[in-house]
Design goal:
This protein is mainly alpha-helical and 364 residues long. The chain contains 14 helices and 6 strands.
Length: 364
């Protein structure tokens, strides 16, 4: 059960509401979150609104402050991802194992270029961001319906994943990581998750009940890194960069659960602006912005929300506004040949959903 404070918005790029999960708050006795719920939802917060819900109230002031904070957090996420890439890049170069020896030899012999190494690191970063996001949204195990017969067995597998293999379990540890933690067991556990998600194991050898996704998790995506070792210190430092933003003495946890395509898209775009710098004798990896980067050479630019709105109004609205048949709405196909983070496709889906909801409401 959830309680939402919905704000009237013309934006189709992302919904505009604040949600509290009442069931979780009450079941787990989360008193601080209950206090926040009470303070946010109190009737006095609507003071200043007229009968038409116009005018400025405390909610409006909070929204403006939240937007400003969101910009800072987004910039902090960009810096965190960049820092995590350098930490991992140097971490793989310095760890001692057979796989890491092959990685260093491939870079020294020219078999693997610095740019190709950077591409593997970026794919690894996308893997991390994907897993963190689906974990925070509780979507990891949505692929299989739970029945009474399988409930106990699946619960045991899901608990094993949460406690022994998930990235979420590293959240608290990342806040107090030590540079002296040179063991590599945490990374080895994550590689098991990658293999299961990539479909390298048969269903019978899937003790964590993870779905087979392929794609980004296929073995060919990170062929060198998947055979390397990595110290716990470097992994936890990278996790810290991905999970927290630091502004002065204040540390803020990044909210992946409610992060939209705009934030992730801006991170993706910023990575394309970076060019790898490799110092093999010192086993150091760094990245910096430079002319001729991937973003410029491939023409990869992020579509902002205002442009998305214009495209929806000029291309999709004329098509759907006169349709009165639900099946015709459901049969519409939207194609974005230059799809990056899916910002346009998400807005189009919400516009179609709005029209479908309107038709169904009028049928009753």
């Amino acid at each position: 059960m959830a309680l939402r404070l919905v704000r009237k918005s013309t934006s189709l790029a992302r919904p505009s509401y604040l949600e509290f999960n009442l069931e979780t708050i009450l079941r787990e006795n989360r008193f601080p979150e209950y206090q926040m719920l009470y303070r946010v939802m109190h009737a006095s917060r609507a003071a200043g609104l007229d009968n038409d819900a116009k005018g400025e109230c405390v909610w409006d002031l909070w929204k403006k402050t939240g937007e400003e904070l969101g910009v800072r957090v987004r910039e902090g996420l960009r810096k965190g991802v960049t820092r995590a890439l350098t930490v991992l890049g140097s971490g793989f170069l310095n760890y001692h194992s057979a796989g890491n020896d092959k990685l260093r030899s491939a870079l020294e012999d020219g078999e693997l270029s610095a740019q190709e190494y950077y591409q593997e690191l970026m794919r690894l970063m996308y893997r991390f961001l994907f897993i963190i996001t689906v974990e925070e949204r509780n979507l990891v195990f949505e692929h299989l319906p739970v029945t009474e017969q399988t409930n106990a067995e699946l619960h045991a597998k899901h608990t094993l994943y949460e406690k022994g293999y998930s990235l979420r379990r590293l959240l608290a540890r990342s806040a107090r990581y030590s540079t002296a933690a040179q063991y590599g067991d945490l990374w080895e556990g994550i590689k098991i998750v990658f293999r299961l998600l990539g479909g390298e194991e048969t269903p019978a050898n899937n003790p964590l009940d993870l779905p087979v996704l392929g794609g980004l998790f296929n073995a060919g995506q990170c062929p060198h890194l998947d055979t390397c070792g990595l110290s716990n210190a470097r992994l936890l430092e990278a996790m810290y960069c991905l999970r927290w933003t630091v502004d002065g003495n204040a540390r803020t946890l990044i909210d992946y659960k409610n992060m939209g395509s705009e934030e992730l898209g801006s991170v993706y775009e910023s990575l394309l602006e970076l060019v790898p710098q490799l110092d093999l004798p010192r086993r150091l990896f760094d990245i910096e912005s430079s002319a001729g980067n991937t973003r410029k050479t491939t023409g990869s630019y992020y579509t902002n929300a205002s442009l998305v709105e214009c495209l929806i109004k000029s291309n999709l609205d004329p098509l759907v506004e006169n349709i009165t048949d639900e099946q015709k709405i459901l049969s519409i196909t939207v194609i974005d040949p230059a799809c990056g983070s899916g910002h346009f496709l998400l807005a189009a889906a919400r516009r179609l959903a709005d029209r479908l909801t309107f038709l169904r409401a009028n049928d009753k």
